[in-house]
């Protein structure tokens, strides 16, 4: 009888042990599933778009090659930093509603004329109200009377009160000198770097008195030398009188700039800083 009871108890214990094992295995399985679901959700969340960028680019003329080189570089940077880009080729669609959808507006070699009254007012409000950041390149300071359009006085003031005077049509290489080494836009950018094949605009005066200069070009390093000079010659700056973060980068003619590590570091930093990401 004792032997039979022992067997019954043993079977009961085995049954209970098996039941507990099943519960433990089920619990572990649920934990594993929960972990992977959480990781997947986290992964999906991390891939969500952080912000949107609008790029107004010049799709033609002398700057077409630069625009074509810029697009794949910008698209790669966007993928690596979780932001998206929309491209437009003219200012016809620019209004307050459109601009308010974007944290950053890049004026990629697009001049400050041919803008409609509505698009000008929308951009001015975007900058004055701190709705988003702005980066302008090269052709964005072609300020004056062109193609029958008057100078955009507000934009001239925004760029430091300057007016375009001349440029080096046959191009020249030159050394760019970083002036504010601690500004986030200049993080990782060498103290000086060479830029090849650039037009080097000159203006009626230096923008320095009205903006924060981040870099200037050393005109004594022009190769070949040119008589088209202006003395104090800022080429990268930000206008701190505006709530919106903004950066102007003069260099932006040759597509070869995207093979220049100093330039791409500068451009990347400007995008992340002006969009308030760093």
TrEMBL record:
<dbReference type="Pfam" id="PF06283">
    <property type="entry name" value="ThuA"/>
</dbReference>
<protein>
    <recommendedName>
        <fullName>ThuA-like domain-containing protein</fullName>
    </recommendedName>
</protein>
<feature type="domain" description="ThuA-like">
    <location>
        <begin position="52"/>
        <end position="274"/>
    </location>
</feature>
<dbReference type="InterPro" id="IPR029010">
    <property type="entry name" value="ThuA-like"/>
</dbReference>
<dbReference type="InterPro" id="IPR029062">
    <property type="entry name" value="Class_I_gatase-like"/>
</dbReference>
């Amino acid at each position: 009888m004792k032997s039979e009871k022992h067997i019954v108890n043993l079977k009961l214990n085995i049954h209970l042990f098996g039941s507990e094992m099943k519960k433990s295995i089920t619990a572990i399985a649920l934990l594993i599933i929960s972990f992977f679901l959480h990781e997947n959700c986290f992964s999906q969340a991390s891939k969500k778009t952080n912000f949107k960028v609008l790029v107004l680019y010049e799709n033609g003329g002398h700057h077409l090659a630069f625009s074509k080189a810029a697009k794949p570089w910008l698209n790669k940077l966007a993928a690596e930093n979780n932001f998206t880009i929309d491209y437009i080729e003219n200012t016809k669609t620019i209004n307050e509603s459109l601009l308010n959808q974007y944290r950053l507006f890049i004026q990629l070699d697009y001049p400050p004329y041919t803008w409609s009254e509505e698009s000008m007012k929308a951009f001015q409000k975007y900058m004055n109200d701190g709705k988003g950041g702005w980066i302008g390149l090269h052709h964005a300071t072609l300020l004056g009377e062109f193609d029958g359009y008057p100078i955009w006085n507000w934009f001239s003031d925004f760029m430091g009160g300057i007016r375009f005077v001349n440029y080096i049509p046959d191009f020249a290489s030159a050394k760019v000198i970083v002036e504010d080494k601690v500004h986030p836009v200049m993080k990782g950018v060498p103290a000086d770097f060479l830029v090849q094949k650039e037009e080097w605009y000159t203006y009626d005066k230096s923008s320095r008195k009205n903006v924060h200069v981040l870099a200037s070009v050393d005109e004594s390093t022009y190769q070949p030398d040119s008589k088209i000079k202006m003395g104090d010659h800022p080429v990268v700056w930000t206008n701190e009188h505006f709530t919106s973060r903004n950066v102007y980068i003069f260099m932006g003619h040759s597509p070869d700039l995207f093979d220049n590590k100093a330039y791409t570091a500068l451009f990347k930093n400007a995008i992340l800083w002006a969009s308030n990401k760093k």
